[in-house]
Amino acid sequence: MRRTAALMALVIAVAACGRSAGSDARTIGSEEGLARNQVAGTDLTRATVDLSDIIFDTFDGGSIRLTEASDAEVTALRDAIAPIDEPSYEANPDWLGPTDLVIGMVDSTGQAWAWPHRILNLHEIVNDAIDGVPVLISYCPLCRSGVVYNRRVPVGDTTKTLSFGNTSALYENDLVMVDRQTNTFWWQVRGLGIVGELAGVELPVLASRTTTWQRWSAEHDNTLVLTRESGGHLYDNDPFASYAEFLDTGRFPFPVSERAADDTRLAASTLVVVVTVDGDTFAVATTGEATTVDVEGVTVRIDGAGGGDALLGDAPYPSRSTFWFAAVAAFPDITVVK
After folding, report:
1. Rounded to whole angstroms, how far apart are CA atoms 66 and 28?
2. For the chain, which residues make up each domain, given as ranges?
3. How confident is the model at residue 306 (pLDDT cuts 50, 70, 90)?
4. β-strand 224-226 against 112-116: which pairing, if any?
5. Assessment of whether the complete model's pTM goes beyond 0.85
6. Residues 290-323, buried b or exposed e (16+ Cβ, 10 A)?
7. pLDDT tens by residue, 94-127
8. The 3-state secondary structure of 34-94, one letter per residue
């Protein structure tokens, strides 16, 4: 299947040469590339980032910068890694191992849900409605960033309910999503519209947790798990199993900013829980033994299994889970709390 071949090709390329795939991108700055007002329905005149820093993976060893991509190329690459739009769930799956990582969430009724990384590796996006709330389960394997967003977005005095696809582009080595209603490009880990009609708008973050299936299922025995209907045995292997080793040697499949690559407060592949409190953003590393950390009145629980979540009192608090380099890229003023 195309999505599997694409991801495997990317990992092989990283292992083989250890350089930025962005170095093969087309030359930036042609008159044609910079003069256009839109591409494939996306308004290029409204942007919060440099358009040349958004780079499409062509899945053949090359890449194309947004400033050089044609309508046909952008359209052809859309959803090459196919999102899941009609998810199905099951209880007590026998195919999940105890150390498999999942993104977990508990809805307002107490029903628990889990989306395994081994499925999200090959889809990255799930559009769903949980307890009447339109949600986006988003995951970028290049950042190991799991974030659940509300798809109902405040826009001025109104709201828009969006559904999301995959551009096949990367920004800061992170998934760039696209909504199907306005064709706005969205930076996955930041949840920010970066190009298009909704540039500058932020997706509301919901409370979720990344941890092992053993830990999650032990605490939530009523969990419904995303099924393997879309690809079955294709989810048996993890093409990113050794990927973190490359990050810690300063190699990224796609370009990242200097601030993200050079921040050594934590190793690039350190998994962190990210919370924003009163406008300030904080990161807590998930390495080490189980512990709790107070972050401006929000309790971040590190579970000793490589994951963690946040609580305000007894209520789940919105958080992100991601590699350190991606947290720095998204939140340059982030504070590490130990």
Report:
1. 9
2. 1-266
3. confident
4. parallel
5. yes
6. eeebebeebbbbbbbbbbbbbeeeeeebbbbbbb
7. 999 999 999 999 999 999 999 999 999 999 999 9
8. HHCCEECCEECCCECCCHHHCEEECCCCCEEECCCCCHHHHHHHCCCCCCECCCCEEECCC
Phi–psi pair at 174, nearest 5 degrees? -130, 150
The helix or strand, by DSSP H or E, that contains position 232, with its residue range, turns out to be none
- Taking CA atoms, 13 is separated from 65, 180, 189, 253, 256, in Å, by 18, 31, 23, 8, 17
In this structure, which amino acid lies at residue 89? Y
Place of tokens 């605490």: 219
Give the whole-angstrom CA distance, residue 114 versus residue 93. 11
311's torsion region: left (phi>0), alpha (psi -120 to 50) or beta? beta
First to last CA, the chain: 43
* Nearest-angstrom CA–CA distance, 322 and 141: 10
C-alpha 133/C-alpha 21 separation (Å) is: 38
Sheet of strand 145-150: strand arrangement: 125-130, 133-140, 145-150, 320-323, 271-277, 280-285, 335-336
- Whole-number Å distance between alpha carbons of 247 and 31: 35
Total residues found in the chain within this entry? 338
304/282 Cα distance (integer angstroms): 19
